[in-house]
Write a structure and sequence with these properties.
The chain has 145 residues and is an alpha+beta fold. It has helices at residues 15-30, 34-54, 86-89, 104-111; strands at residues 2-10, 63-71, 74-80, 114-119, 126-133. The protein has four helices and five strands, in the order E-H-H-E-E-H-H-E-E. It has a five-stranded antiparallel beta sheet with strand order 1-2-3-5-4, with helices on one face.
């Protein structure tokens, strides 16, 4: 069983909970364990917040794209923006413990099994992709076989 969906969202703070709710609803309907769903929803929220904050070119209101794949035993999520790229805007140093911002990528790395951050192939922008092995509820209607 495979499920996938893709959203094109405006770079507005209100888009972040929309993406999280869609992911949580999809996973609940599929029968994914709630702890796994919650971890992925937090990671997705952080990736979307980064796209909203850093993902525009020159202050333009460009949008960003969220794609989720539930395929067998794994969920893969990609968040792609059209910003100037990771190296130019977000740096690579971890956030200080007392910092108010800058923990999102660290959280994503802690909550997901595999994380890749790189340029949008053939375009300007950054793609944050991450995946996690799924656990299923015993009563899952779409239990991976």
């Amino acid at each position: 069983m495979s499920i996938w969906w893709s959203l094109h969202l405006r770079r507005e703070a209100a888009s972040v909970p929309l993406a999280r709710r869609l992911l949580l609803g999809s996973m609940e309907t599929a029968g994914v364990d709630p702890e796994i769903s919650y971890d992925l929803a937090v990671a997705l929220g952080e990736a979307c917040a980064n796209a909203v904050e850093h993902g525009g070119a020159g202050g333009t209101p460009a949008g960003y794209r969220v794609t989720a794949y539930l395929d067998g035993e794994r969920c893969r999520i990609e968040v792609a923006d059209s910003g100037p790229g990771f190296a130019h805007t977000r740096g690579s140093r971890p956030a200080r413990p007392d910092a108010e911002h800058g923990r999102g990528l660290c959280l994503i790395r802690e909550l997901a099994d595999h994380v890749h951050i790189g340029p949008e192939p053939g375009r300007r922008g950054t793609v944050v992709s991450f995946d996690k092995i799924l656990k299923w509820r015993d009563d899952s209607p779409l239990l991976a076989v």
